[in-house]
Amino acid sequence: MLVTFILRPATIQDKKNLFFWRNHEAVRRFSLDSSAISWQTHGLWLEKILANPNQALLIAESGGGPVGVLRFDVEATQAWVSVYLVPEKIGQGYGAHLLLAGIQWMQDQRPEVQRLIAEIVSENSPSIRVFEKAGYRRNTELSTREVLRYEYDFP
Ligand SMILES: CC(C)(COP(=O)(O)OP(=O)(O)OC[C@H]1O[C@@H](n2cnc3c(N)ncnc32)[C@H](O)[C@@H]1OP(=O)(O)O)[C@@H](O)C(=O)NCCC(=O)NCCS
């Protein structure tokens, strides 16, 4: 599949969409924190992220509109990644492409980052599959039965 999309930083204009997507059942199901978020909590969360230079909230867009969301939390030479697709885009194979675009983004924007880290609920088979497809490897030592740790090391 040929997939082209751009990754752009989220802005306060994305507040409504982000609220809707994050609270969608398909996105919450396997989240480490799967509780519903209130509009007020969401607003505070978004403002905090947008003001933090070590957090990047990125929206992937194709010609047909938004496809998914990536978040990176950078800590020195490591960054934690979280990803979800816009609910109606789930199940069409976009996830791995989004993660690959995220790897490229990090290399271009934050070349000091050497390792990307994901924590995945062990029952989240589609997520495990897409992280593996994008080149992340399981760190068995740091994985538990409930939460698997995946890492991508920049060459
Ligand atoms: C995880 C996510 C990004 C993957 O989306 P996607 O790219 O549309 O993934 P797909 O549904 O196409 O599935 C990816 C792969 O998993 C496989 N898969 C799907 N459901 C599966 C299941 N229940 N068991 C095993 N494999 C499964 C698919 O067959 C596909 O494999 P293939 O690429 O070899 O064909 C998307 O499901 C999502 O946004 N989920 C909600 C948020 C989330 O869980 N984020 C990750 C947190 S770590």
What helical percentage do the residues reach?
A: 25-40%
Strand and helix order: EHHHEEEHEHEE
CATH class category label? Alpha Beta
The strands making up the biggest β-sheet line up spatially as 1-2-3-4-5-7-6
Q: What structural category arises from helix and sheet content?
A: alpha+beta
Give the amount of beta strand, in percent: 25-35%
Cα separation of the termini: 25 Å
Which second-level CATH architecture applies? 3-Layer(aba) Sandwich
How many helix segments?
Answer: 5
Radius of gyration: 15 Å
Task: Characterise this structure.
The protein has 155 residues and is an alpha+beta fold. It has one domain: Aminopeptidase. The chain has helices at 15-22, 25-28, 39-51, 94-109, 125-133, and strands at residues 6-9, 55-62, 65-75, 78-85, 115-121, 137-138, 147-153. The chain has a 7-stranded mixed β-sheet with strand order 1-2-3-4-5-7-6, with helices on both faces. β2 and β3 form a beta hairpin. The mean pLDDT is 95. Bound molecules: coenzyme A. Coenzyme A binds next to α2, β4, α4, β5 and α5.
Chain-wise SSE layout:
Blueprint: E1 6-9, H1 15-22, H2 25-28, H3 39-51, E2 55-62, E3 65-75, E4 78-85, H4 94-109, E5 115-121, H5 125-133, E6 137-138, E7 147-153
Parallel strand pairs: 4-5
Antiparallel strand pairs: 1-2, 2-3, 3-4, 5-7, 6-7
Summarize the structure.
32% of the residues lie in helices and 30% in strands. It has five helices and seven strands; from the N terminus they run βαααβββαβαββ.
